[in-house]
Amino acid sequence: MVTLVTYLPFYRLHEIAEFFVKNVEVVEPDKAIVFVDNVYHEKQKELALKLLPRNIDYVFGNWGSRNDTWIAMFKRLRREYGITGDIIFIDSDNVVVGDFLEYHNSLRSYGVYGILDYECWTRGAQQFLERSVPKEHKKNMIRTIFMYKVYEPRKYFEKGFPFFWGPKQVMYLGSLPSEDLVHKLNEALTRVTPCIRNLISDESLLGVMSWLMGINYVPWTLASHHFRLRSHQKEDKHLVAKAYAQFSKGLWQTFKRREFLACYLKYEAILLRENIKALV
C-alpha cells in the first residue's frame, strides 16, 4: 500500500505533468499526492485543477517554505488521509529509473532509505560520500548500498550542519514521525524568522527528525535522474548562519538536548565572526 508524494511551489506546477506522472507510471502507487505551496487564492486552485492530471490528489496551501511544507505533509497525511507510513517522497524535478521498484523492494526492509541522482554521482557526490560508508567513488559502484551518517559531531568544527538526512531526491519512510515529534519540530521551526526559513535545507530538518526517531544511518543508492530547471542564487553567509542559529536555539529550547545547544553556539560564533569582518 505504497503512497507516492511530491511537493512544489505553485510556479513549478508544470513539473507535475513533465516529471511526476512518469514516476506514477513506474511506481504504480495506491495513491499519488501532490502538495502545492504558495497558493493563497481560490482562483489559483481553480486554474490548477483545470490543467493538472486528474488521477492525482492535490493539497493546496500557503506554508511559505520547504520545511513548513514538510511539517504540513506529515500532519495532513496522517490526519486527512489516515496514512502513517510506507510513503515514497520524491523531489518534483526527479524521475526514477525504470526498474525503480526493484531498488524499492530491496531497500524498504531498512525502514528508511534515500536515493541519489546519477547526475550528482557523475560530479563526484563528495558531499554525501564524506559521511557515508563506503566512501569510495567508482563507476562499478552504482548499485552499491551506502550508509549515510545522520549525525556527525565533527561538523561542529567544520562547514555544515551536524544533522543531515543525506541523499533525498527520493526518500522512503516506513513510518511517519509521531504527531508529538512533528508538533515539537514545528515549534522549533516557528522560532525562525519566516523570511529566512528557506535558508535552512530540508535535509537539515529531516536529519534532526530521523535522529530523534532513533535513526543513525540512512541507506542510499542511485536510482533517479535530476532535471535542474532553475539556477540557485548565492546565499548570504550571514543570513544562513542567522537562520541556523535561530533554528538550533529553537531545537535546544524545545528538546533540551545538548547537541542542539552545541549547534546554536556554533552558529552564534559564525555570526560574531561575520560581524567582526564587516567592521574591519
What would you note in describing this structure?
- Helix content is 42%, strand content 18%.
- The radius of gyration is 19 Å and the shape is globular.
- Strands 1, 2, 3, 4, 5, 6, 7, 8, 9 and 10 form a 10-stranded mixed beta sheet that branches.
- Helix 3 packs antiparallel against helix 7, helix 7 packs across helix 9 (237-255) and helix 9 packs antiparallel against helix 10.
- Helix 2 links the parallel strand 2 (31-37) and strand 3 (57-60).
- It is α/β, with parallel strands linked by helices and 280 residues long.
- The chain has helices at 14-27, 42-51, 66-79, 100-107, 118-122, 126-129, 179-189, 202-212, 237-255, 258-279; strands at 3-9, 31-37, 57-60, 87-90, 94-96, 112-117, 132-133, 146-149, 170-173, 217-226.
- The protein contains 10 helices and 10 strands.
- It has one domain (3-232): Spore Coat Polysaccharide Biosynthesis Protein SpsA, Chain A.
- The longest helix is centred in the last third of the chain and has 22 residues, at 258-279.
- The mean pLDDT is 94.
